[in-house]
Write a structure and sequence with these properties.
With 285 residues, the protein is an alpha/beta fold. Helix content is 38%, strand content 15%. Strands 1, 2, 3, 4, 5, 6, 7 and 8 form an eight-stranded mixed β-sheet that branches. A hairpin with a 2-residue loop joins strand 3 (56-67) and strand 4 (70-77). Helix 5 (117-124) packs across helix 6. The longest helix has 14 residues, at 97-110. The chain is globular, with a radius of gyration of 18 Å.
Amino acid sequence: MRVDLHCHSTASDGTDTPAELVRNAAAAGLDVVALTDHDTTRGYAAAIAALPEGLTLVTGAELSCRVDGISMHMLAYLFDPEEPELLAERELVRDDRVPRAKGMVAKLNALGVPVAWEQVERIAAGGSVGRPHVATALVELGVVPTVSDAFTEEWLADGGRAFVEKHETDPFEAIRLVKNAGGVCVFAHPAAAKRGRTVPEARIAEMAEAGLDGIEVDHMDHDADARDRLRALAKDLGLLVTGSSDYHGSRKDVALGAYTTDPEVYGEITRRATGAFPVPGTGGA
């Protein structure tokens, strides 16, 4: 069984529609794929409608969080998408994305980069707008060669020249909200140092005490040393270990299923969840 628990669609900052994502996941030989768009569940219906036979969909979201001034992401799986408290918090985060992106455009303009809000809006195509859309605009303008090259202190990285903060949820509150909605929480790419400052292990230990279920270890932004360290940390804290592609379609150079989660860990995630259940494919449209 091949399980990829971190993928994005055009509902946020991926380039595959939700329907294309599940079809491509099946073509890549996956048995289970999670749709974890940023702070939104808008892709669920289309993904479920197109779900091929033999592929199971895990519904989820990647929640924007911040602790001690450090941005981090929390993968939430199989929660009730209509639970009022978590829904309200997701909407608060999502609603702050547009003014934030406009602020980054204004900073880039002040730096002499002729990016326009209309360009970013076109790239987002109705999805939850974020830094990857602004980064794609910089690629289109020839300012940087790739999206990853835009995530530096020179441009859009945390604290960078064109960085603008947005509302982000306290991770301890995120854990409470997700658990209250029947979901499971996994800290996404916790050692991705090239994205900016990372959360200290002592803080991760506190999150484990607060109900964190796992940490994403096998990820393209973690080298071998980071993976070894995170596995040891997970063992010490009794946390589940996951692996995922963090697939964004053509926006990132990583394939579906490039990193996967052990089927036994996937089974434990489904056992812990009470807010929703994995959706088996029946040969969608």
